[in-house]
Amino acid sequence: xxxxxxxxxxxxxxxxxxxxxxxxxxxxxxxxxxxxxxxxxxxxxxxxxxxxxxxxxxxxxxxxxxxxxxxxxxxxxxxxxxxxxxxxxxxxxxxxxxxxxxxxxxxxxxxxxxxxxxxxxxxxxxxxxxxxxxxxxxxxxxxxxxxxxxxxxxxxxxxxxxxxxxxxxxxxxxxxxxxxxxxxxxxxxxxxxxxxxxxxxxxxxxxxxxxxxxxxxxxxxxxxxxxxx
Length: 229
Description:
- The protein is globular.
- 33% of the residues lie in helices and 28% in strands.
- Strand 2 (30-37), helix 2 (43-49) and strand 3 form a beta-alpha-beta unit.
- The chain contains seven helices and nine strands; from the N terminus they run E-H-E-H-E-H-E-E-H-E-E-H-E-H-E-H.
- Strands 1, 2, 3, 4, 5, 6, 7, 8 and 9 form a nine-stranded mixed beta sheet that branches.
């Protein structure tokens, strides 16, 4: 089984789209774990109304951030494989099937696989990220986020026996840090296909370069220097 972890905060409309993209998957052996992280926009009422046995949800009364929310999901995940989906992103229908095929057929040295992503603004394709890194990518990850974001990652759950989950001190760059720590101990592989649509253009993305987010970016670099001297 694959555990799909979706953290969300005040994005009810986008969350519904993300959930729908999981429910449309060609691969059906999954559970969805949603963490409402301090939401006040009706998300909690919506989650309570869902009639789907595959969906479990947890509510944080106050926000713990994306890393804290994902870690709650990891604590409750029952699958041998774990995938992540941000609430503002959307999977193509074969996302889980292709990543599962790649990861389940890999050798024991591979702990993570990823696919490609395209970026959309108002339904218009504006950018793409199609890396081809595989094997030992640790050095490639040291100075940058060399592959794709958390919405197109799948890991073997046993990886979590070696590393901790997401670093809750990091308010930006937490998915890169997660990949970086995995790649220190495990090889990485990829599916050469676009599997996820990343929606940009809305105002509350942590990747926007406003003063608050840039300060978080600087903090993430200092934390990286501490971890990987």
